[in-house]
Design goal:
The chain is an all-alpha fold. It is built from six helices and no strands.
Protein backbone atom coordinates (compact mmCIF):
# COMPACT_ATOMS: atom_id res chain seq x y z
CA UNK A 1 0.00 0.00 0.00
CA UNK A 2 1.25 3.44 -0.89
CA UNK A 3 1.55 5.87 2.00
CA UNK A 4 1.25 9.56 1.18
CA UNK A 5 1.98 12.45 3.49
CA UNK A 6 -1.20 14.49 2.99
CA UNK A 7 0.03 17.46 4.99
CA UNK A 8 3.11 17.69 2.77
CA UNK A 9 0.90 17.49 -0.33
CA UNK A 10 -1.20 20.41 0.92
CA UNK A 11 1.93 22.41 1.78
CA UNK A 12 3.36 21.73 -1.70
CA UNK A 13 0.09 22.79 -3.35
CA UNK A 14 -0.06 26.03 -1.36
CA UNK A 15 3.61 26.73 -2.15
CA UNK A 16 2.93 26.28 -5.87
CA UNK A 17 -0.19 28.47 -5.62
CA UNK A 18 1.81 31.25 -3.94
CA UNK A 19 4.60 30.86 -6.50
CA UNK A 20 2.09 31.11 -9.37
CA UNK A 21 0.47 34.19 -7.84
CA UNK A 22 3.84 35.89 -7.55
CA UNK A 23 4.73 34.85 -11.09
CA UNK A 24 1.53 36.28 -12.53
CA UNK A 25 1.80 39.49 -10.51
CA UNK A 26 5.42 40.02 -11.57
CA UNK A 27 4.68 39.38 -15.24
CA UNK A 28 1.20 40.92 -15.51
CA UNK A 29 2.24 43.72 -17.87
CA UNK A 30 4.19 41.41 -20.16
CA UNK A 31 1.28 38.95 -20.29
CA UNK A 32 -1.13 41.75 -21.15
CA UNK A 33 1.10 42.78 -24.06
CA UNK A 34 1.25 39.21 -25.39
CA UNK A 35 -2.37 38.19 -24.91
CA UNK A 36 -5.57 40.09 -25.43
CA UNK A 37 -7.30 37.65 -23.07
CA UNK A 38 -4.82 38.50 -20.30
CA UNK A 39 -5.26 42.22 -20.99
CA UNK A 40 -9.06 41.94 -20.84
CA UNK A 41 -9.09 39.88 -17.66
CA UNK A 42 -8.21 42.83 -15.44
CA UNK A 43 -5.77 43.02 -12.59
CA UNK A 44 -7.33 40.54 -10.15
CA UNK A 45 -8.67 37.09 -10.91
CA UNK A 46 -12.09 36.11 -9.65
CA UNK A 47 -12.14 34.16 -6.36
CA UNK A 48 -13.59 31.14 -8.17
CA UNK A 49 -10.58 31.04 -10.50
CA UNK A 50 -8.20 31.35 -7.57
CA UNK A 51 -9.93 28.44 -5.86
CA UNK A 52 -9.77 26.42 -9.06
CA UNK A 53 -6.04 27.16 -9.36
CA UNK A 54 -5.50 25.96 -5.80
CA UNK A 55 -7.48 22.79 -6.55
CA UNK A 56 -5.38 22.20 -9.68
CA UNK A 57 -2.19 22.65 -7.67
CA UNK A 58 -3.47 20.22 -5.04
CA UNK A 59 -4.32 17.66 -7.71
CA UNK A 60 -0.91 17.88 -9.36
CA UNK A 61 0.89 17.74 -6.00
CA UNK A 62 -1.06 14.59 -5.06
CA UNK A 63 -0.34 12.93 -8.41
CA UNK A 64 3.38 13.76 -8.23
CA UNK A 65 3.57 12.47 -4.65
CA UNK A 66 1.80 9.29 -5.74
CA UNK A 67 4.23 8.87 -8.67
CA UNK A 68 7.21 9.36 -6.36
CA UNK A 69 5.85 6.78 -3.92
CA UNK A 70 4.84 4.33 -6.65
CA UNK A 71 8.23 4.58 -8.38
CA UNK A 72 10.05 4.24 -5.06
CA UNK A 73 12.05 7.38 -5.70
CA UNK A 74 14.30 8.03 -2.75
CA UNK A 75 17.30 9.85 -4.17
CA UNK A 76 18.05 13.10 -5.97
CA UNK A 77 18.80 11.35 -9.28
CA UNK A 78 15.38 9.71 -9.32
CA UNK A 79 13.67 12.97 -8.42
CA UNK A 80 15.51 14.79 -11.20
CA UNK A 81 14.52 12.11 -13.73
CA UNK A 82 10.88 12.48 -12.73
CA UNK A 83 11.18 16.27 -12.84
CA UNK A 84 12.65 16.06 -16.35
CA UNK A 85 9.88 13.73 -17.54
CA UNK A 86 7.19 16.00 -16.12
CA UNK A 87 8.99 19.09 -17.42
CA UNK A 88 8.74 17.72 -20.94
CA UNK A 89 5.39 15.93 -20.80
CA UNK A 90 3.09 18.40 -19.06
CA UNK A 91 4.03 21.54 -21.01
CA UNK A 92 4.03 19.64 -24.30
CA UNK A 93 0.50 18.35 -23.76
CA UNK A 94 -0.81 21.66 -22.43
CA UNK A 95 0.80 23.77 -25.12
CA UNK A 96 -0.23 21.56 -28.01
CA UNK A 97 -3.78 21.58 -26.68
CA UNK A 98 -3.89 25.32 -26.14
CA UNK A 99 -2.42 26.09 -29.55
CA UNK A 100 -4.61 23.66 -31.49
CA UNK A 101 -7.82 24.49 -29.62
CA UNK A 102 -7.45 28.24 -29.53
CA UNK A 103 -9.36 29.58 -32.48
CA UNK A 104 -8.08 33.15 -32.53
CA UNK A 105 -4.47 33.00 -33.67
CA UNK A 106 -4.77 36.60 -34.85
CA UNK A 107 -5.24 37.82 -31.28
CA UNK A 108 -1.65 36.90 -30.49
CA UNK A 109 0.98 39.36 -31.58
CA UNK A 110 3.90 36.99 -31.21
CA UNK A 111 2.82 33.37 -30.64
CA UNK A 112 6.38 32.14 -30.18
CA UNK A 113 7.05 34.50 -27.27
CA UNK A 114 3.72 33.62 -25.69
CA UNK A 115 4.37 29.89 -25.94
CA UNK A 116 7.84 30.34 -24.46
CA UNK A 117 6.35 32.23 -21.51
CA UNK A 118 3.68 29.59 -20.90
CA UNK A 119 6.22 26.79 -21.17
CA UNK A 120 8.50 28.45 -18.61
CA UNK A 121 5.59 28.90 -16.20
CA UNK A 122 4.48 25.26 -16.45
CA UNK A 123 8.06 24.01 -16.17
CA UNK A 124 8.61 25.96 -12.95
CA UNK A 125 5.44 24.44 -11.48
CA UNK A 126 6.47 20.88 -12.32
CA UNK A 127 10.02 21.28 -11.01
CA UNK A 128 8.79 22.72 -7.75
CA UNK A 129 6.24 19.93 -7.27
CA UNK A 130 8.67 17.13 -8.13
CA UNK A 131 11.27 18.48 -5.73
CA UNK A 132 8.68 18.97 -2.97
CA UNK A 133 7.48 15.39 -3.46
CA UNK A 134 11.06 14.12 -3.28
CA UNK A 135 11.63 16.08 -0.08
CA UNK A 136 8.45 14.60 1.40
CA UNK A 137 9.57 11.09 0.44
CA UNK A 138 12.97 11.62 2.06
CA UNK A 139 11.40 12.95 5.25
CA UNK A 140 9.17 9.86 5.51
CA UNK A 141 11.86 7.27 5.10
Amino acid sequence: MIHLNYLAIVVAAVAVFVFAAGYYIALARQRAKLSSAAAASGSRPRPLLMGLELLKSLTVAAVVAWLVALAGISDVAGALKLALALWIAFPAVLLVGSVTQERAMETRRDPCRRLAGEATHHQCHRHLLALKAFRVRCMEG
